[in-house]
Amino acid sequence: DRPVPHLRSAAIARLTSPLWQPVLESLDARVIGIPIDARLPYLDLRVVHTALSAPPLPWAQQKLLLREAVKGILPDSVRLSPKEGLPTHTTNRLAQWRARRPAPFQPSRALSQFIDPAKLPALAAGSDPDASMLEIRLRVLDRWLSGA
Fold first, then answer.
1. Cα 110–25–14 angle (5° rounding)?
2. Are 3 and 49 in contact (CB under 8 A)?
3. CA distance 55 to 28
């Protein structure tokens, strides 16, 4: 079954946006050179088609479709809990990356055309996650601009 286009046209437009390509590429460990294994089960076409085929009410409210799908698989304490992010997971993955002692970031000529390398913050091993994410984003952009 395919989703009914008129019922979910905004969701379909967001899912088919060309903006997804750089987002998905930025998660590829081979592209960014960082050992983060990204899994995106919600982008499996079977899941997307099923979710978009369900009537918005009541299934899109409070993640009801997802919560019902895992009934009997996950304990209710997990299944019915409010949505929370994974700051600890991200922090742990960044710490693992830092523990590998990556070479200090040296922007390529391609990136140096757009930024002043002298103004980049020095990132110590204990840098906060926001500073580490900034460095990772700069490394990704640098690799992309360099054609690596």
1. 120
2. yes
3. 33
CB 102 within 8 A of CB 69: no
Q: How far is CA 86 from CA 46, 91, 93, 101, 142, in A?
A: 25, 9, 11, 24, 27
Rounded Cα distance, 38 and 24, in Å: 9
User: Quick one: which of 109, 107, 134 has its CA closest to 123?
Assistant: 134
Q: Tens digit of pLDDT per residue, the chain (148 long)? A: 555 555 678 888 888 888 888 888 888 877 777 777 788 888 888 988 888 888 888 888 888 998 999 999 999 999 998 876 666 667 777 777 777 777 888 889 898 898 888 887 776 655 667 777 788 888 888 888 887 6
Q: What gap in Å lies between CA 8 and CA 82, rounded to an integer? A: 25
Token digits for 82?
Answer: 């409010």
* Single-letter residue type at 117: P
Are the C-beta atoms of residues 31 and 139 closer than 8 Å to each other? Answer: no
Bond preceding residue 58 cis, omega within 30 of 0: yes
Residue 118 to residue 107: CA distance in whole angstroms = 10
